[in-house]
TrEMBL record:
<dbReference type="GO" id="GO:0043565">
    <property type="term" value="F:sequence-specific DNA binding"/>
</dbReference>
<dbReference type="GO" id="GO:0003700">
    <property type="term" value="F:DNA-binding transcription factor activity"/>
</dbReference>
<keyword id="KW-0238">DNA-binding</keyword>
<dbReference type="InterPro" id="IPR009057">
    <property type="entry name" value="Homeodomain-like_sf"/>
</dbReference>
<keyword id="KW-0804">Transcription</keyword>
<keyword id="KW-0805">Transcription regulation</keyword>
<dbReference type="InterPro" id="IPR050204">
    <property type="entry name" value="AraC_XylS_family_regulators"/>
</dbReference>
<dbReference type="Pfam" id="PF12833">
    <property type="entry name" value="HTH_18"/>
</dbReference>
<protein>
    <submittedName>
        <fullName>AraC family transcriptional regulator</fullName>
    </submittedName>
</protein>
<feature type="domain" description="HTH araC/xylS-type">
    <location>
        <begin position="143"/>
        <end position="241"/>
    </location>
</feature>
<dbReference type="InterPro" id="IPR018060">
    <property type="entry name" value="HTH_AraC"/>
</dbReference>
Amino acid sequence: MGIVLAPMRGLRASLGSDRITQYDAPVGCLIINPAGVDSSLAWSEVRKNLVVAIPPGTLSELALQEFDLANVELRPPAFGVVDPIALDIAQRMSAELTGKATPNELYLDSLVTLFSTHVLRTYASHMKQPQPPRGGLSSKSARRIEEYLREHFTERVHVAELAAVAGISANHFIIRFAKTFGMPPHRYLINMRLDSAERMLIEGEIPIAEIAYLTGFSDQSHLATTMKRYRGRTPKDLRFER
């Protein structure tokens, strides 16, 4: 699947046949190429878009969890159709991937889940419209999630594994988590890492680079950038102030 992030003129495409269609693709144009369907896409100028590749098995599993459908078939929109919701999610993914800071994997994982769920809800055949979750996580599920994150916050954490701990689907988990904790999962994880890093900076003499490694950041620069963004100061500032 691809979402156009800048206008493209004279795009030539085919899907499921040999017939070539030429059209101008506006910003937000969504291109879906279902698995197993022959297609072609050609352009004559520099393009700016975001491609999201979702394995058929992953999409089928999500359809089963979210919509109770064992078999799902995507019906692509007509060439040139704009999807504002897909565009919004794609722009957030692009900003995270191209920003100066190291991309937050849990945040990207959440966005891919939201994108996939939207595509299923909008373009899958015989799709039932699910009721959105009204409340947050149960107190038992919330405790399980907190315990799991305390044990694994320095590691790579994915939405699917957190949803499994809570015993609900990935898309519902993202919504229920935010209602329970007042923030999305990736922000909660960032706070846990920053809290741990701040304690180490205040209480000991461990080098900042090592603290970054011990608290789940890719390097010292990643820790400094994240702390400055969310706490308004750098590790050096905090160590100097103690």
